[in-house]
Amino acid sequence: MISYIGAVDQGTTSTRFSIFDKTGRIVAWDQKEHRQIFPKPGWVEHDPEEIWRNTQDVIKGALAKGGIGGENITAIGVTNQRETTVVWDKRTGKPFCNAIVWQCTRTHDICQKLIADGGTDRFREITGLPVATYFSGPKISWILDHIPEARKAALEGNALFGTMDSWIIWQLTGGLDGGAHVTDVTNASRTLLMDLKNLSWDHRMLAVLNIPYQILPKIVPSSDENYWGFTDPSGPLSAAIPVCAALGDQQAALVGQTCFSPGEAKSTFGTGAFLLMNTGEFPIVSRHGLITTVAYQLGSEKPCYCLEGSISISGALVQWMRDNLGLISTSAEIEDLARTVEDCGGIYFVPAFSGLFAPYWRSDARGVIAGLTHNANKGHLARAVLEATAYQIRDIVGAMEKDSGVRLTQLKVDGGMTANALLMQIQADILNVPVIRPAVTEATVLGAAYAAGLAAGFWAGKDELCQYWSVDRIWNSKMAESERQSGYLQWKKAVSRTLDWLV
Fold first, then answer.
1. Which residues, 6+ apart, have CB-to-CB distance to 160 below 8 Å?
2. Tens digit of pLDDT for each residue in 152-209?
3. Nearest by Cα to 128 from 287, 273, 250
4. What secondary structure does DSSP assign to 410-434, as a single string?
5. pLDDT band at residue 270, thresholds of 50, 70 and 90?
6. How many CB atoms lie within 10 A of CB 320?
7. What value, to the nearest 5°, has the Cα angle with vertex 408 and ends 23 and 496?
8. pLDDT score at 151
9. 426 with 269: CB under 8 angstroms?
10. Residue 495 burial (CB count, 10 A)
11. For the segment 440-492, what is each residue's pLDDT rounded down to a tens digit?
């Protein structure tokens, strides 16, 4: 019987299930989008029950497309949009409200009060994180403060919190019928509630945010030989398959890119963009606006840490050009439109739609298009959209080099936007390092599959995984240094115009 590994990729805009063979090749997959809910400006929600229905549908769909039986799946891993927060009733399985998405800014006032009492970095030594609306802890606090039945259930021990990995794993392993309530170290490290050094929930942080300990999931390794549970044979797999791996999406991409050595880095280009650098077995507390987080923990090995720079708006800016301005009809058209001009025409687009993430962490910022003249056209705007992502990555690389003392020599890339060859060339030009796209660009779901396969013995170890990674294309810089520096100075000037917009 041929065996495979399955992986759920629960992302910001869609859910995917992919099936991998021994070489790490995708043999079948299915994907389904879910609604983006915007109740108020700056608020972003998802329906957790819709996402679970979609998860079941894509599992069935991938198996059907591949002509594969559920019994052929050796193990299942999960990767997920991080920080997105669900609180549900363990007696009914029903969420108390929609999931609050990582992009949502409704916790601004909570965060400002925390900052007023000790500054943005008051919890960095414990959690590795700044105080920001991005993270899960303030979102939990908001739910418990605004939904009385959620607070009551939490105090009575009847409420469960989870990021999307916890929600999906609980459902996969039985839900009301004994579902496992767990989260892996990478997702736990994004809550503002975990002690980064001992990988446990920190009671000081729980007290600050008024969150009862009993609602929290058990923290487990990213790849765990001690299976958390098995899928229900009456469910979409029609078989009892071990669920034994989970990674937040960006850490999963780091594993999928086999960045197992300190100094190796990758950037994922999706709805947002996220650059992670492996820093080894010891966390480096950032002094330049980055996040210190857990990269992965494979079985009984020591955890591996990384520095991360997070950008909230990357591919989402292309979607905005498509949906809000109507300048393109498909996201892929942005490249052709941008190629109609040789440069940005002096236009700089800073997409601070919900504030700026790393390395600025300014929730008061709002988007700006700077440098408009009579000569500007939609081609220039399209090119400025692509350059916005590349310049934001440069901001992060600069901070990362200062924190780590390691100069970036190459950048592995993955995610949907890497199909845009012009963007990849722009990125190489602005960074002045080679940009390397692997043969398998779906590194996020691949990383979850790798973690599950390691836990189940499907793959022998990290060395075997490295053998399967291969290069598809490399972009080298073609830009003069003077042009690179001039463009970056203009970008920084445009960023300064976005600040203090909200008072």
1. 87, 88, 89, 90, 166, 170, 181, 215, 217
2. 999 999 999 999 999 999 999 999 999 999 999 999 999 999 999 899 999 999 999 9
3. 287
4. -EEEESGGGG-HHHHHHHHHHHTS-
5. confident
6. 16
7. 120
8. 95
9. no
10. 21
11. 878 889 999 999 999 999 998 999 999 888 889 999 999 999 999 999 999 99
SS3 (DSSP) at 72: helix
Tokens 């692509």 found at: 386
Would you call 450 helix, strand, or coil by DSSP? helix
Q: Look at strands 435-438 and 411-414 and give their pairing.
A: parallel
Residue type, position 219, single letter: I
10 Å Cβ neighbour count for 408? 17
Confidence at residue 337, expressed as pLDDT on a 0 to 100 scale: 95
Q: What are phi and psi of 333, to 5 degrees?
A: -70, -15
**HSE-CB of 112 using CA atoms within 13 angstroms:** 10
pTM over 0.90: no
Q: Which two tokens stand for residue 182?
A: 């767990």
Q: What single string gives the DSSP state of each residue in 472-494?
A: EEEE---S-HHHHHHHHHHHHHH
Rounded to whole angstroms, the Cα distance separating 293 from 254 reads 12
State the Cα–Cα distance between residues 431 and 425, nearest whole angstrom: 10
